[in-house]
Structures are given as structure tokens and as C-alpha cells.
Amino acid sequence: MYTDAELAPDGRSDTIRIHTKEDFEGMRAAGKLAAECLDMLVPLIEPGVETDRLDRLAREFMLDNGSLPACLFYRGYPKTLCISSNHVVCHGIPSEKLLKNGDIINIDVTLILDGWHGDTSRMFAVGDVKRNARRLIDVTFEAINRGIAEVKPGATLGDIGAAIQEYAEAERCGVVRDFCGHGLGRVFHDNPNVLHYGQRGLGTVLKEGMFFTIEPMLNLGKPAVKILNDGWTAVTRDKSLSAQFEHSIGVTADGAEVFTTSPTGLHNPAAL
Ligand code: MF3
Ligand code: CO
Ligand code: CO
Fold first, then answer.
1. pTM over 0.90
2. Predicted pLDDT at 7
3. How far is CA 217 from its chain centroid?
4. Rounded CA gap, 198 and 180, in Å?
5. 3-state SS, residue 112
6. Residue 9: phi, psi to the nearest 5?
7. 247-251 vs 181-183, strand pairing mode
8. Nearest ligand to the C-alpha atom of residue 55
9. What is the atom index within ligand 1 of the atom nearest the CA of 215?
10. If you measure from the C-alpha of residue 67 to the centroid of ligand 2, how many angstroms do you get, rounded to a whole number?
11. Closest Cα to residue 106, out of 168, 173, 171, 51?
12. What region does 196 belong to: left with phi over 0, alpha with psi -120 to 50, or beta?
């Protein structure tokens, strides 16, 4: 398997791309398919399931639906999904490891449809999870929604970061600093960097036609992370639980279009 250079140009732009109405259609289709890929996995998430099985099913789903797995071989990444459990912050690598009762997991899907990237992740509870873990999931879901609510032309990236940080810290959660959201479209990781902390009024001013992700990672403990020896898996330094949600978003004339909303409402953890 390979990713066509034509379909996924490597070049990050110096400026922030402004996209057309047709580009919105491309992102809408890619985002919807990414959300449907996560929806497809929902009934399979239970104790005893191999994370590699979810990875394989996601890859088959993408290929069956005319899309390509964007993460597979991206900078040498070996799998289709990122599956990050418990104190894993992000970029957990699917393996023969089994899901177990009480785990909280993030599944991050990125696919390329007709050259457009759909990038989204959600949290899932495996069996019965402890109350503090459930609370972290709910706080992280509210945090991404508060970030998205800031998006409109004239607002700044600082407004998004501040909305997330103020809420997360009021809920005594640490906001991870080492990873951020990103511009995307025909390019997977493009300008701008979308920080999940910041100050209102500062940073890049949003304009209609910008595409980017918002993907806050919140920890029950401190923000600090470290990368394991596999070169990918990011974990909390204090071993505290971590959660993340991610959506791909376009700036519209008066707000945000969320490309990766689940058609069946399953992006909301309350629906699970
Ligand atoms: N989907 C991740 C993101 O939100 C990127 C994963 S890159 C990989 O940006 F190589 F780890 F897959
Ligand atoms: Co992303
Ligand atoms: Co992602």
C-alpha cells in the first residue's frame, strides 16, 4: 500500500490556505466517511478484543469505500488507526494487545477520500469504567465543543485555545502542550498549528475557507508527556489518565462546519 504523492502532497504551506465551495464538498465527504469508520467500530469495542482487529477492520472499511488510510506508513507509522488507552495520550499503536474491562480508549481515524483528509477521534469506554475516567471523557468532550463554538471569521486561534484551557483547568484537568491541532485538506498536517491553550484575542485571525482540526488532549493529572521507545506512543509522565476528541472543521461565513460529525450521533459519548 502507498499514498499517492498526487493525492497527498507532502508540502506544508507557508501561509494558511483558503478553500473554495468545492473544497468544502470534498472535506464533507471525507469527514463523513471518517466518522462512519468510527461508527462501524463502535459495536466491536468490548473486553477481549485485539486492537489489531479494529485496525484491520478500519483499513478494510476505508479501502472498500474508495479511500486510503492516511496514517499507514505516514512518517513510518505502521498502522491505520491510533488506539490510545488509559494513560496513553495519543499515537498508541494497535497490536495483539486486548482491550480490557475498565479501559478508556481513544480511536483516531484519518483517511484520504478523493485527495481530502478526514481526521477525527473519539473516546470509548470498555465495559464498566471508573467514575473519574468517565468524568475525564465528559470534560474533554465539553472542551472540544467549547473550542468549536469559538470558530467564526474574525475570531482568533487564541480564542479557541483559551476556551479549552479555561474550562479544562477549572475542571482540574491538565491540557497537553506537546501536541496540537493542525490545518488539513489535501495536506494531512498543514498550517496553522491549533494550540489547545492560549489567550483570547491573540494568534491568527480566522477567515472563511480555513480548514483545521481541533483535538484537545486532557489529563486527569499534569500536562507533561513522554514518548516511549517505539518512537510514537505518547504517555502522561505522571501516569494519569488522558482523553482526546478530534474533529476536522471548516470556517464558514458565520461559524464552523464540523466535517466529522457522526450521521448517527455516536460522536457524543452520552450516546454510547
Ligand atoms: N491522526 C493524528 C492527528 O490527529 C495523526 C496521527 S499520525 C500517525 O493528527 F502517524 F501517528 F498516524
Ligand atoms: Co489531527
Ligand atoms: Co487524528
1. yes
2. 44
3. 9
4. 12
5. strand
6. -60, 140
7. unpaired
8. 1
9. 4
10. 17
11. 51
12. alpha
Amino acid identity at 263: P
CB 89 within 8 A of CB 7: no
Cα 262 from Cα 272, distance rounded (Å): 12
List, in sequence order, the alpha helices (H) in the chain. 21-41, 51-64, 131-149, 157-170
Q: What's the confidence (pLDDT) of residue 96?
A: 98
Indicate whether 10 pLDDT > 60.
no
Considering only CA atoms, which of 111, 113, 72 is closest in space to residue 93? 72
Tens of pLDDT, residue by residue over 141-186, are 999 999 999 999 999 999 999 999 999 999 999 999 999 999 999 9
**CA 225 to each of CA 141, 161, 181: distance values in angstroms, whole numbers, following the listed order:** 20, 19, 16
Pocket of ligand 1 (CB under 6 A): 71, 74-75, 77, 82, 91, 108, 110, 119, 215, 232, 246
pLDDT digits (tens, 9 = 90+) for 32-44: 999 999 999 999 9
Nearest-angstrom CA–CA distance, 208 and 271: 31
Any idea which ligand is nearest the CA of 92? 1
Look over the chain and give the mean of its residue pLDDT values, rounded to a whole number.
Answer: 95
| Beta-carbon count within 10 A of 192 CB | 18
Q: Element (H or E) spanning 193, and its range?
A: strand 190-194
